[in-house]
Amino acid sequence: MTDGRKGSPAQPSGIATLGRDHGATESAARVRTRSLVPPTEGIGELGPLLRHPQMWGFATTTASLEFVRGGLFISLLPLYLSNDLGWRVSAVGLVVSGQYLADTLCKIPAGWLVDRFGPWRVLLPFAVVAALAIYPMARVHSLAAILLLAVLFGAGTSINWPASISGSVHLGGIEHRASATSIVFLAWLCAGGLGPVLINFLSGNHYRVAFDLIAAVVTIAPVVALLGGTGLLQRRDDPPWQPSPPQKAWEAIREHLGRMGWLIPGMFVQMLVLGMLLPIMAPFAHTHLHLSQPVYGLVLALGGAVTVGFLLPVGRLVDRTDPKAILVGGFALASLAIVWLGTGHAGWGLVGRVGLLGLSYALILPAWNSLTVGKISSDRRGLLLGVFMAIEGLGIAVGPAVGGALYTYVGFRTPFFCAAAVLAVIALFYLVTPRERFQAGQGE
C-alpha cells in the first residue's frame, strides 16, 4: 500500500482508474487501488474519530435504523400480527423476510449512489423512505399493505451500511479503518440489541406505545442525515468527498470479485453460521437448558456486552497489527465456543461459553472489516461494500432454514456441530492463505 508512506507517488488529481491493461506499470496499478484520501489526510485513530460530529452522525443513523429494525421485526410485529391481527406464522415470516430481502437486493444500487453523490446526500432520501414506511404501520391491517411497508423500509435502510462504512473510513483514513468501522458496529450492537428487549417490554397489550416509540426513533435518522447533508456536521479540515464517475461500475465489480474471490467464502459463511443459530437458540435454551425467558435474555445480553466491551480495543489493535492472526483466531475461537455451547449445560459454565462466543465475535468483526475495506478501491467503496454485504445477506437468508431443518430432523446438537465445523474450515483456510494477501492494497 502506498498511502502515507515516504516516497509514495503523488496523489492523482482525477478519480483512480480501474481495469487497466495487464502491461501497466506497478506504480500505475497501485494508484488504481489506493485511497483517494491518504491516511495522513484522515483525522486519525480512535480518539479524534470519537470527537468528530460526522462520526457521531454515522453512528446515530445506524443506531436509529437498527433499533427500529430489531424492535419491529424481531419483537413487535411477530407479536402484534399473530396475537392482535390473528395472522399465521407463515404470513409473519413473509413480512420479515420481505424486509430483509429488500434490504439485501437494494444494497448494490445504494452503494453505487454513495460513490456518486457521497454518503450524506443519499442517506437523507433513503432514511425518509424508511421513516415513511414506519409511520402508517400500526394503522394498516392487510397483508399486502404491511408487506409493502416492510419492503419499503428494507429498501430505505439498505443505504445505511454502505454509506456509514464508506463515510467513516473516508473520514478516518484507510490506516485507521478498523477503528472507524468498529464505532459504527458498536452503535449497531448496542441499538440492535436494545431494540428487541425494550420493545418486547413495552408491547404486552400496549402495542400503540411500542409503535409510537419506534416511530419516534426512526425519525432520528432523516434528521441526522439532513444535518450531514447540509454540512452542519462537517469541519473545515475534513477530507473532501470525490465522486466516482458513473461509467465502469460493472468493470469494478468484476475486477474486485476476480482478485478478492478468496474472501467470498468468509463473507458468506460467517453470516450463514449466524443465521443457522438464530432460529434454534431460543428453543434450545428453553427445552434443553431449561432457562426461563428472563434468564435467557440476560445470557444474550452478557454475550453482547462482551462483544461491545472488546470491539473498540480490538479495532485499535487491528489497525496497529496484522489482521490475519486476529481473524484466524476469531474464527477458531468461535468454532470452539459453539461446540462448547451446544454440548454444555446450564449453570455458571454457560456464562463462560456465551462470553467466549461474544469475544470471538469482537475479534472477527474489526479484523474482517479492516481486511475487506482495505482491499477495495476508494472510488468504488460504496458500490463494492454493497456487493459484499449482499453476499453476506444471502448467507443470513439461507442460514435459518438450514439450522431449523437440522435441529428438527437430525438432532438438536447438529446445528452447533455443523456451524462449528464450517468455522473451523474457514479458520484453517485463512490460516494457510499467504500473509501478503491480508495487507491492504494488495492484489493489483
Helix-strand blueprint:
Layout (H helix, E strand, L loop, with lengths): L25 H8 L12 H5 L2 H32 L4 H29 L1 H16 L8 H15 L2 H13 L4 H27 L3 H23 L19 H11 L4 H24 L5 H28 L2 H21 L4 H28 L5 H29 L4 H19 L12
How would you characterize this protein structure?
Helix 4 packs antiparallel against helix 15. The protein has helices at residues 26-33, 46-50, 53-84, 89-117, 119-134, 143-157, 160-172, 177-203, 207-229, 249-259, 264-287, 293-320, 323-343, 348-375, 381-409, 414-432. The chain is globular. The chain is mainly alpha-helical and 444 residues long. The chain has two domains: 1-10 and 27-243, MFS general substrate transporter like domains (Growth Hormone, Chain: A, Up-down Bundle), CATH 1.20.1250; 251-444, Growth Hormone, Chain: A (Up-down Bundle). The model is unreliable at 1-41 (pLDDT under 50).
Which features would summarize this protein structure in a list?
mainly alpha; 444 residues; Growth Hormone, Chain: A; disordered N terminus
Write a brief caption for the model.
With 444 residues, the protein is an all-alpha fold.
**Proportion of helical residues:** over 70%
Major sheet characteristics = none
Rg (C-alpha, Å): 22 Å
Number of strands: 0
Report how far the terminal alpha carbons are from each other.
10 Å
Tally of distinct domains: 2
> What's the CATH architecture name of the largest domain?
Up-down Bundle
Low-confidence stretches: 1-41
Order of helices and strands: HHHHHHHHHHHHHHHH
Structural class: mainly alpha
